[in-house]
Amino acid sequence: MDPEIPQHAPQGAAARTEQFDRRLEENVALLRRYVRAKTGATVRSREPVSDIVQSVVRAACEAPLDAHEDDAAFRSWLCTIAANKIISKNRFYSAERRDADRERSFGEQGRLVRDEAQLSPALRAERGEDFERLRGALDVLDPTDREIVILRKLFDVPTPRIAERVSLSASTVRGRLARAMTELAARLT
User: Fold this and answer.
1) 152 lies in which domain range?
2) How far apart are CA 80 and CA 77, in angstroms?
3) What's the pTM?
4) Looking at the domain assignment, is residue 102 inside a domain?
């Protein structure tokens, strides 16, 4: 028996018949040729043909048994399974992924730097400039809006508690926060 054909059907799979096993054994060589011909360089460079064939045979064994009236229909069914596997693997390997060369690290050792002592002088100066720009933009805001932004965004105080503190309704606080954030964004860009 071919090593790519499982000896026992996986748990939960439909019972296989002797005719199914015979057809499968007879068509493994055809399936191998089909997969070799249809896989592109992207898939072939990452997976051996025998692994794909084995995956197709496994999927065929796990699929509900359809009464394939003749060998041609059975071969067509196997090739359809193979084509779907190849398409799926091609999409997986061709998917655009994050490019490590485009990533920026936060600090010299690739982690987010929170301690000022770990910053380089240039990064310390840049943070200082950003802080001054933010302070200037906050100073321009209405005092109530400034308090709402600071409480919500810096101290993560819930909106109902801010509403009590500034003597406004929660919906008014949310609206003022949205407008203040829009104004800050415009000033900081």
Assistant:
1) 119-188
2) 5
3) 0.45
4) no
